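Weekly sync notes, structure subgroup
Attendees: PM, AL, DS (notes)

Item 1: joint prediction request from the bench team. They want all two components modeled as one assembly rather than separately. Inputs as received:
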Amino acid sequence: MIENLILGFQTAFTPENIFWCFIGVFAGTVIGLLPGLGSTTGVAILIPLTLTLEPVTALIMLAGIYYGAQYGGTITSVLISTPGEAASVVTTLDGYKMARNGRAGAALSISAIGSFIAAIISLALLMALAPPLANLALQFGPVENLAIMILGLVIVVSFAGGAFSRGLMMAALGLLISTVGVATGFSSARFTFGNVDLLSGIPFVEVMIGLFAVGEVLHQIRVGAAAPIRTKFRDLMITRSELKRSVGPILRGSGVGFILGILPGAGSTLASFMSYGIEKRVSKNRDQFGKGAIEGVAAPESANNAAANANFVPTLALGIPGGGTTAVLLGAFTIYGLQPGPLLFETQPTLIWGLLVSFFIGNVLLLVLNLPLAPVFGQMLRIPYGYLYPIILLTSFVGAYAVSNNFFSVLIVFVFGIIGWIMKEVDLPMAPLVLGLVLGPLFEKSLVQTSAIGQGSFLVLFEHPISVVILVFAALLAAGPSLTRRLVARRHAKQADRENDKTPVAH
Amino acid sequence: MITARRAGLGASIVLAVIGIAAVLGGTGYGMFVDGGEVGPGFLPVFAGSLVALFAVLDVMGRLKRVPEHDPLKEVAGADEELAADLAAESDVDIFGRTQSQRTRMLAIVLGVLVATLALVQVLGFIPAFGLMLFVIAVFVERRKWLPSLLVTVVTCVVVYLIFVTFLRVPLPEGVFGGF
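Output from the run, pasted for the record:
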């Protein structure tokens, strides 16, 4: 452990890596705060920029964008009630009210402090948990790997929001898209329709840029811009009593965030909503929630940061991304010729530990950047969207071309841009599609291997104890939400019945 | 006017067709090879049938029309002021543009984008997309032409420096040669 940490510090503390870490967290803050540009989009657009860098440096920068965006997303939530990131949506409830009450500075400070504390706690847990999990995963054969992937898909589907069937449909579509081209292990080309460019499959990064960047822009054009409200920074200082009130929410938020973030697919948005819900129930200042309670900012902001870090546990240890952005990051790994998964801890210790230690550096940089400079960042909101979105389009297409120096990539971005826009309009979740696409080749490989072990039968899945446990867990998660909804509905119905009985019927 | 509901129905029907096509195509590749192992057709058939099945379920679900689930409104709960804030998101945006105007803008942007892709071979990559930026800013977004020109030029120069000078990406050149 200590040796690994030393190795990590030696890797992360080179001037080059610190520089790119700074670029990453700075870009992340800006990306997080610009409405219509999220961390997934940001990472997807900026992958092409990192192509000439060392893999570890590139990943340090890309990861910096991810957690930097968690800080930046808060700024818009508080100042203009428009979350820059989905994970900051819930912060608008109390953060914006605080800003209206003249406490914008305090809201921004507490979210930076909370995010930082959550980041440090979750990083320590990440460093402690990921290696043993990777070790355990190393013992896994194809059967267990298949079970893990099924679990990952089920989780992402159940937490993607919206109907379960739509999520499953999109995950299956992602798997289907991944089968285009010549797969490893099979000699025949599938679904290429005689197109040479399709032989190597539908390129992953281009799909991401299309879905998240172009699709989002097209969607935003139709949604229209919301009215920005100017806030005065009457009081930038946070008071001692506000700090004291926030200690509990920050710690609870970190815990909730880490636990939810660890589940592959759950992600930081859910964590922020859950921790807000919990605070609303346990807080002494319950009545102030929704009116500018500092707890309502501290808890979700800590939770989304903790979840962002915890997302790296399944991503690094199992090779199964925890959310949309980590799915894109996983795609970045494969661009650098790295196969994400438990083996990375053994074969690439410098990369893994350098990356993990860089999170510490990045979060310190973010705290320093965000505490005094949040209002300055807020000025960026003045960039009119009318300039911003054509610039995003330009960068998306040039970036896509840069990935493989091929005009085919540009067409893929265009096509998936339109697909992404339609998906947004008709409310189909994107995260399951992306996860299906990323996991597709691995999923097929384990399918082949598992069927070979079972001599054509998948019943071996139920003969290995570990895979049974994983599958039962997956089944519980799949059934869980609808079961609880049904129970709640039944309770409501009973209550309503009782009330009906009490109400005297007027004749 | 196409409603979101009809668009959703259309999308699900298209997905159902794609799923069925994948099942048919996958069967042709062979689901199993000798010895009962999974063959190249298995995953297409498996994923395709899931897509088709859930697309049909989704069509049925959309016909039944389930009330939309909004987590933000749920946590906002009984707070009336907050609920009013959320409901106040009106149809008209800050520039006073209505929904149908914005839909038309989207159609124009899509058209401009297609034209840009076609122009890349003629003008070159950066000039074509620079033109797109300028056209969208001035004619779609109605911004003043001088600042728009400035933004266009600066963006093009920055993109050129990053991608051509620094990353050495051989972007398609048009009649203007090197730029």
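Discussion: Residues 99-166 of chain B form one domain.
Action: AL to compare against the crosslinking data before next sync.
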